[in-house]
Specification:
The complex is a heterodimer of chains A (about 140) and B (about 130). Helix content of chain A is about 75%, strand content about 0%. Chain A contains four helices and no strands. The model of chain A has no long low-confidence stretch (mean pLDDT about 90). Classes of the chains: A mainly alpha (about 140), B mainly alpha (about 130). The interface of A and B includes residues 5, 35, 45, 86 and 131 of A.
């Protein structure tokens, strides 16, 4: 496969690797990365629903995979990715109404996205662990 | 090029830029995002509420009409949004000959997954 970029020897703009990471740029790419991660989660959702439709054994197998320690780590990451994309997405929807574009607003909403994502993830897992202990 | 049609004939032939409906994809990504805000929050809250539930309780929950409807809506909006989002990512980063096959693959994959998920949900809802 011919790669058009390999033929160029001049540096191309933007030279992202020489820029200091900033909240704005990091959150921008984070919204994309979490979106791609959540696409994978959407596949898991369908597998989970198909397992539920297939029967108790298939459902138990999927539940077992999710309950394993590696499944729990992935689920924790997925929870954070979900809240990151949700909060970041709402921030984008607000921007689409042509509001909050001042530098100060952008940084306030940016840090709000980070803080809320962490808080919601922690809250959901705290409640989940309580529920798991309560139902056992 | 002229004032009324500020695009080159080549650009038009290659289908680059807006053809008056270029806004549609951008708009639908926002509309599906708006729909997904309540739907995904509902789904996440339901999952947390069902932790520790067994298969029978989960199936009974999924069979309730409102849950079946919301699940179908979630799957529809989710895979529509996923298809549009991944399309933008591919268009931005893939410039090789794989671009078009990947875009087609994403469309096929998202439609197939949405149909499979909706079918599974309805099978649980209407199954014996």
């Amino acid at each position: 496969m011919a790669d058009p970029t390999s033929e160029r020897t001049r540096p191309l703009s933007p030279n992202v690797q020489i820029y200091r990471p900033q909240l704005t740029s990091v959150l921008s790419i984070a919204n994309r990365i979490t979106g791609v991660v959540l696409s994978g989660c959407a596949v898991v959702l369908v597998v989970w629903l198909i397992a539920a439709a297939t029967g108790p054994h298939a459902y138990a197998a999927v539940q077992g995979a999710i309950a394993s320690w590696i499944g729990q780590i992935v689920l924790f990451g997925a929870t954070f990715a979900f809240f990151m994309h949700l909060c970041g997405g709402i921030r984008h929807l607000v921007w689409d109404t042509v509001r909050g574009f001042e530098l100060r607003s952008i940084y306030i909403s940016g840090w709000a996205v980070v803080a809320l994502s962490v808080m919601f993830t922690a809250a959901v897992w705290a409640v989940s662990l309580c529920m798991a202990g309560w139902n056992r | 090029m002229n004032r009324k049609r500020p695009r080159s004939p080549l650009g038009r032939a290659l289908g680059l830029g807006s053809a008056k409906d270029g806004i549609q994809q951008w708009w639908l990504e926002r509309v599906t995002a708006l729909a997904l805000v309540p739907l995904t929050i509902w789904f996440a809250a339901s999952l947390v509420a069902h932790i520790g539930s067994d298969y029978v309780i989960f199936i009974a929950w999924l069979r309730t009409p409102i849950v079946t409807i919301l699940m179908v809506l979630l799957l529809t909006a989710l895979f529509y949004h996923t298809a549009l989002g991944l399309q933008v990512v591919i268009e931005d980063y893939v410039h090789s000959g794989m671009k078009i096959p990947t875009l087609i693959g994403i469309r096929f994959g998202c439609f197939a997954l949405a149909v499979a998920g909706i079918f599974a949900t309805l099978r649980v809802a209407f199954g014996g």
